[in-house]
């Protein structure tokens, strides 16, 4: 029981880390290697506001999300929109996007170093134990899990029920055909990308309550997010959630029952196994 | 056309250089290379870079560095090695050959210092390391006679940790049951390999032992496992992000131990800032003579100039190593590197950490090993011959 709850909590954290990238890569078709930097920026905003005025990270989110949305919208319009227009095929867009966002990630690290300094930022928020189902868990992890459930649920509903959500799914499936039925592909892709950035920054603000970060830790999160998104199937919210939970449960199980030293090995074993049997990911569509 | 313009500009620059040589020589170029990005950037930002800034500030505030009859202002060139040994080596090469740095400071961390030792040796640069912990000082100094060590080695740290635990065991604060974990990288593994046998030889029973990968996001399985084993004391050979995470998990899990030890990062001001009163009684690697006048004066200046507090371990040592270099240059009276190295070998230096001198292996044998948060200050409780150690107290009370 203990292992399951701990694993689910970790899975919730992973879902927060990966959901934004899923929107950006799956919907807007931008393989954003600067995703982790957005997460760290969100985390720093939470740290800074908490340090300056004891503002709860859960309130910070209200400020961080629109800011990140605007920033990512601008990034898409200035840097990535032209790439999309120029690209002759999906493959070419992917290569161009990877190179551009890889460069952007260095710029982002540089800016954060200049603004925040290179020191670790960590603070204590909700770090008291909560008894649940016979075990004790950190309140901050529980809170982040609840937020993850809310964010993923809202995204799922929005993508499946609302008109813009369905349009976004349409551009994810067939960008060329979507244009034929009167969908403004460029604008919606920008919307999906900006939304992905906002979700990532929100995740960053939430996980900063229990993780210690510094300006250059972003790349670790990008990698983790990438593994989860690919595992779950690109462009599917359910896939990311399931993959994140699986990874969390597996890592916790291995750490508790076998050896904490083998968590990384187990995670990559799961990744390889899934890709062997379902190269398109758990919920991914077969590409024709 | 373009080329001619360039040629003319170059000629003008050359003429200017020739015309006012005195002006160009009034400043000395100091080279510094350490991580600003990558896994060790957080540590370097606390321990290394502020001291480079502080030292340059102090030297210039005194009117410059005395070299022979002249006094020179100093100017620092900083390079980010991205925590990548290859980049450290490239940056040192660049500092020497392209930037023509007059003095090159040592890099940051054990790994990067050892990786860069051959290149410092090739250029004949004095290299007084302050952030490298190694037990191989004797072999290294034979191979690289220009390299000096100040921060001690794993063996002494482990021995001191055993002594600190013994003191608590003698008082009846803890029993024999020990939980010990380590981060799975060179530092954690080396300390674990030495600590295991050392504690067993001292009669301790290691009831829980495990390692976890660097960058693990959730250490609660580790802490749950440790708690389930019912230890009297908890020891972690950890790095900063996991030092923080382990402490937080221990508080959340309500780990009841008489002694709680985490390694690198415990001595950082950020540790106390995060955990506040919960940090009280936590043991960690490092320590300083926190009540000593020299350290307090240094800490105040550090905060005033850089806006940040120094850590309670290697910060003062980094500054001290710069002081050694400065004094050696002043006494030798020139920037003649072989003479500076000879001078460092044969003299004792008065620094913020106390008197620093080196044995026949270029090794400073008096250093702090274990400290403890007491009254909001991380005080040294064990050392190999430093003055000012305070008695070790019973561990943290989180319940």
Written account of the structure:
The complex is a heterodimer of chains A (288) and B (399). Chain A is mainly α and 288 residues long. Chain A has a single domain, classed as Orthogonal Bundle (ABC transporter involved in vitamin B12 uptake, BtuC), CATH 1.10.3470. The longest helix of chain A is centred in the N-terminal third of the chain and has 30 residues. Chain A is globular and about 55 Å long. Chain B is an alpha/beta fold and 399 residues long. Chain B folds into two domains: 208 residues, Rossmann fold (3-Layer(aba) Sandwich), CATH 3.40.50; 151 residues, Rossmann fold (3-Layer(aba) Sandwich), CATH 3.40.50. Chain B contains 15 helices and 15 strands. In chain B, helix 4 packs parallel to helix 14 and helix 10 crosses helix 11. The longest helix of chain B is centred in the last third of the chain and has 19 residues. The termini of chain B are far apart. The chains are: A mainly alpha (288), B alpha/beta (399). The interface between A and B is large, with 43 and 45 residues.
Mean pLDDT of chain B: 88
Q: Approximately how much beta-strand content do the residues of chain B carry?
A: 15-25%
Number of domains of chain A: 1
Low-pLDDT windows of residues of chain B: 1-24
Outline the biggest β-sheet of chain B.
Answer: 7 strands, mixed
If you average the pLDDT of chain A, what whole number results?
87
Any guess at the CATH architecture of chain A? Answer: Orthogonal Bundle
**Largest sheet data of chain A:** 2 strands, antiparallel
> So, CATH architecture of the largest domain in chain B?
3-Layer(aba) Sandwich
User: What share of residues of chain A is helical?
Assistant: over 70%
Strand order of the largest sheet of chain B: 8-7-9-10-11-14-15
Helix content range of the residues of chain B, please?
A: 40-55%
Can you tell me the CATH topology of chain A?
ABC transporter involved in vitamin B12 uptake, BtuC
Unreliable stretches covering 5 or more consecutive residues of chain A: none
Order of strands across the main sheet of chain A: 1-2
Q: What is the CATH level 1 assignment of chain A?
A: Mainly Alpha
Number of beta strands of chain A: 2
Q: Greatest chain-chain interface? A: A-B, 43 and 45 residues
């Amino acid at each position: 029981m203990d292992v399951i709850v701990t694993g689910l909590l970790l899975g919730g954290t992973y879902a927060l880390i990966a959901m934004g990238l899923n929107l950006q890569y799956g919907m807007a078709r931008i393989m954003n290697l600067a995703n982790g930097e957005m997460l760290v920026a969100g985390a720093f905003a939470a740290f800074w506001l908490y340090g300056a005025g004891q503002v709860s990270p859960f309130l910070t989110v209200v400020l961080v999300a629109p800011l990140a949305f605007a920033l990512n919208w601008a990034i898409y319009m200035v840097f990535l929109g032209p790439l999309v227009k120029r690209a002759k095929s999906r493959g070419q867009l992917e290569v161009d996007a990877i190179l551009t966002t890889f460069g952007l990630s260095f710029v982002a690290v540089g800016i954060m170093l200049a603004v925040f300094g290179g020191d670790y930022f960590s603070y204590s928020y909700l770090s008291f134990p909560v008894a649940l189902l016979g075990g004790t868990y950190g309140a901050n992890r529980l809170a982040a899990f609840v937020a993850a459930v809310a964010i993923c649920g809202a995204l799922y509903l929005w993508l499946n029920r609302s008109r813009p959500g369905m349009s976004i799914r349409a551009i994810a499936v067939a960008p060329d055909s979507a244009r034929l039925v009167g969908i403004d592909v460029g604008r919606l892709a920008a919307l999906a990308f900006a939304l992905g950035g906002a979700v990532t920054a929100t995740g960053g603000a939430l996980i900063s309550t229990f993780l210690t970060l510094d300006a250059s830790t972003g790349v670790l999160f990008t990698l983790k997010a990438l593994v989860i998104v690919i595992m779950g199937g690109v462009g599917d919210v359910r896939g990311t959630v399931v993959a994140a939970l699986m990874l969390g449960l597996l890592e916790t199980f291995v750490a508790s029952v076998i050896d904490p030293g083998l968590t990384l090995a187990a995670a990559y074993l799961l990744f390889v196994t899934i890709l062997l049997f379902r190269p398109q990911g758990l919920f991914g569509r077969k590409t024709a | 056309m373009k080329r001619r313009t360039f040629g003319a500009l170059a000629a003008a620059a050359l003429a200017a250089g020739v015309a006012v040589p005195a002006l160009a020589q009034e400043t000395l170029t100091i080279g510094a290379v350490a991580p600003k990005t990558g896994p060790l950037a957080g540590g370097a930002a606390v321990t290394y870079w502020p001291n480079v800034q502080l030292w340059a500030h102090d030297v210039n505030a005194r009117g410059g560095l005395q070299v022979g009859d002249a006094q020179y202002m100093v100017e620092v060139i900083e390079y980010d090695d991205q925590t990548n040994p290859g980049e450290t080596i490239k940056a040192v090469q660049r500092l020497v050959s392209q930037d023509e740095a007059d003095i090159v400071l040592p890099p940051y961390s054990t790994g990067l210092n050892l990786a860069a030792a051959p290149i410092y040796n090739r250029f004949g640069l004095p290299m007084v390391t302050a952030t490298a912990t190694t037990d191989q000082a004797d072999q290294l100094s034979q191979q690289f006679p220009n390299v000096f060590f100040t921060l001690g080695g794993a063996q002494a740290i482990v021995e001191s940790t055993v002594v600190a635990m013994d003191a608590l065991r003698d008082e009846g604060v803890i029993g024999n049951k020990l939980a010990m974990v380590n981060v799975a990288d060179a530092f954690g593994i080396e300390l674990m390999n030495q600590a295991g046998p050392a504690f067993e030889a001292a009669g301790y029973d290691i009831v829980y032992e495990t390692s976890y990968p660097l960058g693990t996001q959730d250490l609660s399985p580790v802490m749950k496992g440790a708690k389930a084993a019912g230890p009297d004391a908890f020891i972690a050979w950890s790095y900063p992000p996991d030092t923080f995470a382990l402490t937080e998990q221990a508080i959340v899990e309500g780990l009841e131990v008489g002694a709680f030890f985490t390694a690198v990062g415990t001595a950082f001001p950020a540790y106390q800032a995060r955990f506040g009163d919960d940090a009280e009684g936590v043991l960690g690697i490092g320590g300083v003579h926190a009540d000593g006048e020299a350290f307090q004066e240094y800490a105040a200046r550090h905060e005033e100039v850089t806006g940040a507090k120094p850590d309670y371990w290697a910060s003062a040592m980094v500054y001290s190593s710069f002081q050694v270099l400065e004094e050696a240059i002043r006494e030798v009276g020139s920037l003649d590197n072989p003479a500076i190295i000879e001078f460092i070998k044969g003299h004792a230096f008065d620094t913020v950490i106390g008197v620093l001198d080196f044995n026949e292996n270029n090794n400073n044998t008096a250093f702090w090993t274990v400290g403890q948060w007491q009254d909001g200050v991380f005080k040294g409780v064990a050392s190999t011959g430093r003055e000012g150690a305070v008695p070790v107290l019973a561990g943290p009370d989180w319940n």
